[in-house]
Here is the input.
Amino acid sequence: MAAIHCFGVGLVGSYVARKLAESGFTVHAYDPQPHRVLGIRGIEIHRLEFNEDPIEMLLERISSGDGITFDPDLDIVVNMLPGDIGHSSTTALAELPWRTVDLSFSEFTPDRDDQKAKEYGASILWDTGIAPGLSNMLLSLAYGEMGPLKNGEVRVGGNPTRPTGGWNYMAPFSPIDVVAEYSRPARVIRESELVTLPALSERHEIEVPGKGKMEAFLTDGLRSVLDTIPAVELSEYTVRWPGHIQRFIDERESGKLDVQSLTSDWEYNEKIPEFTWMEVFAEGLDGQKMNWLVQDHGGDDGHSMARTTGLVTLCCIEEWLKQPNMLPPGVHPPEALSSDAVRRIVYRMIREGVEIVGPLVGAPEY
Here is the structure.
């Protein structure tokens, strides 16, 4: 049985580690605060110091012969560390002949290490969440069916099920990464050209089924599809309750915005009902349209963002374990997966209780 080395076991990482252990895999969890996976059968904990590198720890334990081995043909590293910390680990992993599934979300994308990964024999699959991740996969299905797109749009957000007052929001992952998401200029496609627009621009109201009016605004979440999906127009929007992003803008412009305070104000509260919702829309040059709706309200196994994000990562790991040669050395975006693999991922998520409605949903055989 393969061993899975999980770097980071926070709200999402702990979900992935737990599900892998439940499936019978040997799981190694590396985190300075591994409390979410303490006592779970099948998970061996490696407690890091706050500035300690998990790769160095893993390599040291492999070389010391203290019981940890790493078989590149079987084992996988899953990088679920936040932001730029995660990027540093993925850059280092590009110099090791291992397979890596990368969920870290940094401004600095790992595709810049593609040539280095090929030279060292490393295989990295990156952006394996719901968006980017599943959104890329669905756009790739649309491109496979319709060819170049006239328009592609992604709208996605994880929020309380109803306005809560205050910020009307709680962060299901690192608040620092949320602030970075709100701050980075948004790269989009307009009239078949890559352009950069201010983050939080193109604000507009949308109607979310069963929830009512919410607000969408541009964020920099398209990433790899800017290069892989030919389109006249491509956009990605984050979805929040009305009032949230205006308050953020007002505090930022007044100089009152404090990231440390946001970390407290946006702290995730398991007692508050929440949901994750995504719409992926694609229109071909001939006017044909495809549309997917994804929604989850959490379950006994975790909150909605952990489930929707973590299940995509989990399914990518499982696909790679079943097909060891699925990806050659190099750095690969999620849309590099075959349409059959994407359909199996979608079907597995549906079986886990995630609501996904749209075309080409099924479970083809291997």
Observations:
- The domain at 3-130+309-357 is CATH 3.40.50.720 (Rossmann fold).
- The first strand starts at residue 3 and ends at 7.
- The mean pLDDT is 94.
- The radius of gyration is 20 Å.
